[in-house]
Amino acid sequence: MTVQLADQLSDPNLFRQQAYINGQWKNADNGDTFAVMDPATGNVIAQVANLGASQTVTAIEIADQAMRKWRLQTAKSRADILESWYQLILLNTEDLAIIMSAEQGKTLAESRGEISYSASFIKWFAEEGKRVYGDVIPLAQSDRRGIAIKQPIGVVAAITPWNFPSAMISRKVGPALSVGCAVVLKPAAETPLSALALAELGERAGLPAGLLNIVTSEDAVAVGAVLTTHALVKKLTFTGSTPVGKLLMAQCASTVKRTSMELGGNAPIIVFDDADLDLVMPGVINAKFRNSGQTCISANRILVQKGIYQEFIERLSAAVAEFDFGAYTDKSSSHGPLITAKAVENVHAKVKKAIEQGATVVCGGQLSDGPGHFYPATILGNLNSDMSIFQEEIFGPVAAIYSFDTEQQAVEIANDTPFGLAAYFYTENMRRCWKVSEALEYGMVGVNETAISAEVVPFGGFKESGQGREGSKYGVDDYLEIKYICMGNVD
Ligand code: SIN
Fold first, then answer.
1. Can you state the percent helix, strand and coil of the chain, rounding each to 5?
2. Is 163 in the pocket of ligand 1 (CB under 6 A)?
């Protein structure tokens, strides 16, 4: 069944099903399309242009031409356009949230939150683009002057995920455009509509044609191969899984492209027995169940000190019993579905394996009937680090609870993973706040707090969780080249 998403919007022109190249809405050359579904119902909500390799090449060539003028504009004039784009995103929050919920499944409240988060990156980078400073370097020779200037790296290819269909775009496109680059973006095939709506608003904000090109496609392999090997692309930015990130990095090696990677996580959340459980419970619920557990910084391993283990489980079970999984159109829904039937299968397989290996099911763990890709809130206890779930990113609403005795043991368990994106812990002990923060091998650490993301802070991971940082004052660095100029014979 095809559902008329445009009819739900105040501005139906935000609903776009064609790709966006050179400021024009384009079908695939061969007319091919792919279906986008509402994960809560399985209904088809759009048929989107399914582009291939040759239109990706065209988009890159157009981006290269467009950025020649854009890079010569003042940072202020670029910032003015980005500022208008930011305002338009905010003004259209409700429509953008409906589009996002329809294709991704998250509740409207979560989508509204993501739109505001997404817009914040555009504003932040509009401002940061004006602060790309260089240096004057003292040299050993009195007749010489050394200068370092920063210049836009070139055409940026961006590949973005389905779990945050808007914010993962703006935190890449914002810095790229603000410093003078052009972008060719491939959004996830599950959630292309949010990207296309952003492009529509970018055009209304005055973004010149060719600077932001959206290549919609179901053929990630063909489009990815072009984005990672074309000589005109100077940088690839990717958010997604570690295995795919490694493959893209290998492909980028052939033309020595700059890469920045936001990859998988295996976040621990450590609850020490001196923690304030009234503070802990909302924090754990946010870290574990936001977006139904489909975030790279989801609490994947919940480590609870033995003295409070039982009380913690009881309180978490009581909180989870209040959840209401449902469609975004149902106002009572507190949590949405998983993205696809395959995602439900994957989560369930991990739960079943954990049970086979000795986990106990405190609640959930059963597949539900009915339409939509729903998985119930599940709590697993009696886990240990020998079980496969300890090393797997669950990406679903499954709270995996482990117990520990000492601080040292907790830190060792937390660091026992090739991943290093986010970690959290709760304690009332000041010494522990410092020592454990320093000991955790993670790019981001939340102390007595799990809502740690914002446009002003550096988001990124250690180890196999990636390289580079997004957001913050560091978020423009990956889009810039540093050029050293030596002025000689200054006598
Ligand atoms: C992610 O899951 O990678 C993004 C989460 C966030 O920005 O908070």
1. 40, 20, 35
2. yes
